[in-house]
Structure formats: structure tokens, C-alpha cells
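Summary for the lay section of the report: proteins are chains of building blocks that fold into shapes. Here we show the chain for Extracellular solute-binding protein family 5 and then a coded description of the shape we predicted for it.
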Amino acid sequence: MDSSDTPSGLSRRSLLGGASAGFAASSAGCLQYARSLVDRESPKQVSVRIKTVPADEDEAAVQIARALQKNMETVGIDASIVLMTGAELLRDVLLNESFDIYVSQYPSHHDPDFLRPALHSTFVTEQGWQNPFGISDLDLDEQLTEQRTAVGAERQRAVAGVVGSVTEIQPFAMVCFPTRITVVRNDRFTNWNGLEDPINYLALRRTEDAPDGEPTLRIALTDDRITKNYNPLAVEYRRPNPLTDLLYDPLARRSDGEIQPWLAGDVTWQWTEDTAVTATVKLRDGLTWHDGQPLTAADVAFTYRFLDDTSLGTGNMNVPSPRFRGRTSLVESVERLDAQTVRLEFGDTAEAVAARALTVPILPSHVWEEKSAATNIAGINISEGVTQALTWANPDPVGSGPLRFESRTPGERVVFSRFDDHVLVGGGPDRVSVPFERFVVQIAPSDTAAVSLVTDSTVDATGDPIHPKVLDRVTENDPIEVLFGNSRSFYHVGFNTRREPFGNVRFRQAVARLLDAEHIASSVFDGHATPAATPLAGTDWEPPEFEWDGTDPVVPFAGTDGELDISDARGAFREAGYRYDGDGRLLK
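The coded shape description reads as follows.
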């Protein structure tokens, strides 16, 4: 060191002493830094958290998660299960993107067009069931766009292409379609069908020997959120529930596999020269809201603008309704032509696809317009804010549907009544004869308790599907009957492809091979489920080459009868670019 570097007033000895101390400190710092570099560069075990709901909400989901966790640990992955309420799970998955893997049921679907909002990269930054997996694949985008515009045989081929890509890319791993099991009584009402469809409640028939007095339909649900929140736009506060759908009417409803007019008395489709499609919709006469105000074309036009941007243009960016984004994104513009008529423009979209947009709930502008202001809510990560419309509990819902809200006891029960001023309620052509005046929902703490409410004549039916294990508690003697129906809501394992290692398609495929859907359908559901390789299984849209034939044709289980072939399973992860240490841990 040059003498000029020696500070004035310091002796050489003191300087050397300080230098020695400094050297020791700096050496320690260097060693610490070196160790941190080693730690940072040293391979670590792959660690994954599996999110799902507790057994009292969905026992099957927990059992699927446990089976996956067990096999993940067997192949050297540090896997843990995180249990949370249904609302918390939906919030983390659909709003916050805060998950590695989740196990749940996907909302019911009736056609292949739900795949576009579920998987197109256009929706990768949006909330709700719009691409919650964060998948982005340009080839798949092109196929989904082709599916949206194709008709006839070309549409069938386009759907087959989409299915092939989805099975290869594996944004989620298919498990099975559960059988929908319902326990009902036939002494007060008959003509029970799948209660997944709201129309089927209206199709019930009152028996001739039913008790006199005010006819009341009673059902038991295990999900108490219907007693607390009636916001049809909220995605995290309920599983799909037909009762909310009966509070709010759409322009058209799906019935017998087809979309048919409801509030709309007439729908005229028209193609323009550039293949853009428009629909002119004329409302039925005499439509009113539950509060007595008239329902007009102005409410319809407002609804589509509001669902597209619940801030009504007052924010820095559009704040669409996540729950209906896949359908409202089909609408490019809406115009009120007169008090009963609107025109919707869909752009380059096939008529069959565009018709899906007519099934969103129509909202009263005089109630919802004031809910466009920005708000915040604890637990939701938002970059540009969120509107009151998406967080409001809507405690006194005003709709136009055949049911109207009466009262509730949060966590215990809710009472609806028949809306006798509904244009379709009552006798006559094109009308429905609702066989009850009141509709009471009783909350049960479990499937077992729900079944007990039916057998002891407290309620008429279990509104939520019950787990097969409860069937041994049911004796099918008159008037008790067990109904079995096909559900279009499938169990799946969703991957967050925004996070490693799930951005690696081969890793996702290797994880999917840890699931034995055939064994799960047999052991978890007691055989009351159908294993599936695609979300279109059981429909005319499923390509034959992807049908389940004892195993998944693309990602077959790495084992037999639920028992994992460890060597085969680990080989799949090695092929994905991962390796194992001497203790058998999968390293990243």
C-alpha cells in the first residue's frame, strides 16, 4: 500500500491491526458468499404443493390428491397437500394464480367451445376459468380459432385437432367424469331428472296425494355459500349452482342439448359478406324484474357492455366479469334497436358458437350500474383494481327468473318463492307449470346428513351430488329412490404452467402418468365414475383415437392396477431433463 493511502493520525501498527481485523471480516464474508453460491448452484429436490378442498367439501378430490402425492413422493418429489375451503381454492386458482397443482372438478360443459376460453393464450392474463393454467401455445391457438369459425365436417376435424393438442400439451391431467348420484322422495314430487340443469326443477310434477296447503319443494345442499352470496358474476363464492341460474334469466337456455329462446321470443341470425355473424334478438312481451320494473332491451344492451367491462369505462382498463368472459368475448358490439330489440355482432364466428353468448344472465341496469366503482378485497391479488360488481354479495338479488329471493339464515337455509309474474310461468303454450310456490334449501354438514334429511322426510332431494360411499345408508323402498346421471363436470389435476417445473411439457406428461384414472374410478368412486383421456369423453365430439380403452392413449399410467412401476415412472422424469441424487430425490 502506498503511504499516501495511510490516513493521517493513524500509526502503522494500528493500521495493520485494523487491516488484520478487516481481512478476517472480509474473509468471513467471502466464505459466506462462496457458501451461498454453492447453495444457490447446488441442485435441490423438486418440491410441489397440491391444493384442494377438505373431505367434508369433496372427499373424492382429497383422495385423488393423496394418490397423486403418494406417487410423487415415490418418484422422489417433495409433495405436500394444502387443504382450503372451496372459496379459497377458487380464489387462489382463478384469481391469484397462486398454485403449483390443484385437484378439483371443472364446471359442467355441453359443447367443445368451452375449450377456447379455457386454453387460448388470449385469456392467459385474465381471471376466472379463462386459461387458469397459463398455457400459451401458438399452434393450439390457431386450432382453437379454426374451431370457432368452422362448420359441419370441418368443425368436427377442427375439434379433433384441438383435442389432440390438448392431450399432448397436458395443461391439465384428466381423471374421470363422476356419476351424479341424487337421493329423492317421490311422495310429494315426481319426474326427477338430473338436478344439474335448472330447467329440471321446473319440470317436476306434484303428486296427487301430496299434502294440502302451500306446495313447498325442499332440497338439501352441502355447500352453504348459496345462503351467503347471490352474485351471479362471482367466481369464487360458489360451485356451479342451478338455483342462482333460476334467479336470473338469459336470452336463451340450453335444453335437450340445444340452445333455445327464453327471454328472447325470436332470434334471427344473419351472415355478412365477410362471414361476420349478427343476431337480432326480440324480447318477449311483458317482461318484468322481481321488483316490478320492466325488463327492456336497454337492460340487455347494458348487460353485455357491463359483462365486458364492469367498470363501464371509468377505470384505466376494462374489468370484465371472469365468470362469463368466455361467452361475452364472442360479442364485438351490441346495439339497442328499440324497447324490445337488440342487435349483437359477433364477427368471424360460427353461428353455433355465437349462440353460447345468449346464455349469460341478463342484469337489471337500475341495480348493477352503481356497482361499477373500484373496490378492493382481501385475499385477491389485483394490479389494476377490481369493481364492486365482482365482490358484492348481492344480498337481496333482483332478477327476472322463475324463482325470486325471499329470506335466508346464513349457513343454514335460504327460501325462494315462485315468481308468478314471470312470462313463462303458468299454463299455456310455450310455458312451464312450476309445481311449487316456495323453494326451501336446507344446508347439511355432510353427504350422510343430507341423505338423512331425505330419508326422514325433512327434504325432498339432495341437490348436490353425493359420494358413492353414502349409498349403503340408503334403502330404496318407496318413496325413496336413488338416481344416477351422467355429469359433464370432470375431475382433473390442473398445472400452473407459469411456474417451473410445470412450464416443461414433458414434466407435466410425467406427472400425468402418475395417475391411474381406471383405479381411481374403481376405488375412490366405487365404480361410479368413468375414466377419461379428454374433456370431451362421452360426446360425439371425442375423436375415436383418444377414447379411453382401459388406459390413457397418450399418457398411460406408469404401472398396473394402481401400483406404480417406479423404474418406468422415474424414466419419464429423466426424459424430461431431470436427474436423481443418491438418495432417490428428483433434482431440479
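Put simply, here is one thing we learned. The first strand starts at residue 47 and ends at 52.
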